[in-house]
């Protein structure tokens, strides 16, 4: 009877350890260098931020899926007859990335991102903002320790930010994070 309990307990611990290696949860934050691309209007980049939750689901030894839930601010500044206008867009972004490990520390991240507009500061025209943004992300990640990492990523917007303009989001992101 004691052996059965001991074996059951050992198998349970093994299963929990295996599960913990397959799924990691964490948080990250960082800087955005954002601008609009594909527009005829001369725009300048803004420096903003992003922060949120991250998960890593290990599927193979060198492959994982990395879904994220981020709050991110993007946009640009541009000149008008009334002066400079800074258009800052606040999104909830959901990237789902394929994570390919190039070594134990370095990984390549590629995948789609869906974003939902929450706020728009210093808006130029309140009636024309698109509330959904679709993008493609690509970047590199480096594990400093088992828990601490840094990332660099480019987010290329594929949909227009506005119904009245050809501008798309273009964001360079630098992040640091912690896996629990």
UniProtKB/TrEMBL annotation:
InterPro entries cross-referenced by the UniProt entry: Beta-barrel_OMP_2, OMP/PagP_B-barrel
Keywords from the named record: Signal
Provenance organism: Flavobacterium alvei
Segments forming domain Outer membrane protein beta-barrel: 19-161
Protein name per UniProt: PorT family protein
Signal found in the keyword field: yes
One Pfam family from the record: OMP_b-brl_2
Residues making up the signal peptide according to the UniProt record: 1-20
Superkingdom, natural source: Bacteria
